[in-house]
Amino acid sequence: MLVINAEKRLNTGKSFSRKLRLYNKFPGVLYGLKKSVILLTLDHNTVFNLQKKTNFYKKNLLLLIQDKKYQVKVQAIQRHSFKLKLLHIDFLCV
Q1: pTM to 2 decimals?
Q2: What average pLDDT score do residues 44-67 get?
Q3: What is the count of structural domains for the chain?
């Protein structure tokens, strides 16, 4: 099972997302819980390298957020139109 480390984020919006991307990070969302959604900050290089594997899309992933474990699936990924960059990712809790 592939493991992804993430951090919670408090700020939202276009300008905050752009600032994240300057530091080689990008925003994400975890939903499907019976609570509200969890806003995430992910490291770009680790997720980009993991998404090259076929198991990333087919099987459950383990998402670690502040020592809490969530089994998730990738729901949607937004990519840059011509650069090899991830812009946003949505995880669905299983």
Answers
A1: 0.90
A2: 93
A3: 1
